[in-house]
Amino acid sequence: MAKSDFSAFQVILLIMCVLVLQGVFQQHQHPGLETHLAVDVPLQPSRSSKPSHYTPLSIPEGQAQNLPSVRVVDQQLEEKRGIYGGKGDASHLGGFTEIDMHGISPAVWKYAVTEWNVQSVIDVGCGKGVSTSWFVTHGLRTECVEGSHDAIEQSIVPDKSILTEHDFSRGPWWPGKTFDMVWSVEFLEHVNLQFHYNYISTFRKAAILMVTSSRWGGWHHVEIHGDEWWIRKYESYGFRYDEALTKVIRKTASEERNSNTTFPPNEKKFNSQHVWMSMKVFINPTVAALPEHAHLFGEFGCYLKNSNRECGKPESDQERHRESAARETPLDPSFYPLKLNQDQDQDWYDIIKANMKT
C-alpha cells in the first residue's frame, strides 16, 4: 500500500471515530434522545420505569396538578341535557341539579362527626357544593373536586379556594393533605372503568370512603353495577369494606327519611335515597393508620357499668371514685368530636337559600 493511501485511510478512520464518540457523548448528555426524536407524542411510562419501592397502594405524595375540563360548543348537546347542568362541558361531564334531595343527608353527616369523630372531608364530584357547604359551615376542614366547569362556576361554596376543577378522564389528581373521609355521592357511575385509577388516587388520601353507586340510568351513567361488584373492585384496590359501618349509615339515612324532617330552604322532605339504598363504607388502612387520623372512631375508655366514661371524671361523688379518676390520664382535647349546633345548620340553610333560583 502506498504511503499516501495509508494516510487517507487513517484520516477516514479518525473521522469515523470522532463521529461515533460525538454520538455517545450526546446520548449521555440527553438520554433517550433518539427515542424522543422518533415520536410525535409523549410515551406512557412503562412498568419497569417505576422505582423499585413503588407500590400502587401507597399514599400519593404532595399535590397533583389539576386538569380542568375542555370547553365545547354544541347546541344539540345542550338541548339534550334537559334538567341537568353542564353547559359548555363535554358530554361526559355535568349531570348535576340545583338541589338533589336524594343525595344530601345531614343526619348521616352528623353521625360521622359525632360518632366517628370525622374532622376533615374531601367531597369528590361535589357539583354546586350543597354537601360541601354543610361540611364547611359545621367546622370541618374541607376540599371539593369537581369535573364540570359549569358546576364550579355556579358553586355556592363561600370559600372558592377549596374548589378544584379536575376532569378525571384527563388524568389523576389528588390533594396535598390527607383527610378523615371522602364523601362521594352520584359520582362513581359517571366515570368509566379505564379512568378508575385517576380518581382512586384521590380516594387514597382519605381514611374513610363513603360512596354511592347508581342502580339506574342517568346522564352519562356508564358504570351501573351491584354492590358486590363495587366491593370486589374497591377491595382489589386495597380498601377494606366495612359491612357494620355501612349498615349503620344506611339505617341512619332511612330513619331520617321516615322522620318526616323537611329541608328549610325548599320545605321538601329529606329522602336521601342514594344513601340509604347504595352507600358503602370502606376503610383505607394506609391513611387510617397515620398518627394524624388516630382520633377516628374514638370513644371514652374508662370503665363505667354498662358503658364507658370520660377518663379523669369520676362516675360518682364517692371518694373512691374520685381517687380512681385522679389517677387516670384524660383524653387529649383533639380527640374529642367537633361540637355541632343549630346556628351552623342555619348558616347552611342561608347559603343554599341565597343561591336558589327563584
Describe the structure.
With 358 residues, the chain is an alpha/beta fold. It has 2 domains: 232 residues, 3-Layer(aba) Sandwich (Rossmann fold), CATH 3.40.50; 34 residues, no CATH class. Helix 7 links the parallel strand 4 and strand 5. The N and C termini lie far apart (101 Å). About 7% of the residues have low confidence.
Shape: globular
* Helix percentage range: 25-40%
Percent of residues in β-strands: 5-15%
CATH class of the largest domain, named Alpha Beta
Number of strands: 11
Could you give the topology of this structure?
Elements (H helix, E strand, L loop, with lengths): L2 H27 L3 H6 L36 H7 L24 H11 L3 E5 L5 H8 L3 E6 L2 H5 L9 E3 L13 E6 L11 H8 L2 E6 L15 H10 L3 E2 L1 H16 L3 E2 L4 E2 L3 H6 L1 E4 L1 H4 L13 E3 L2 E3 L9 H8 L15 H14 L3
Parallel strand pairs: 1-2, 1-4, 2-3, 4-5
Antiparallel strand pairs: 5-9, 6-9, 7-8, 10-11
Helix pairs in contact: 5-13
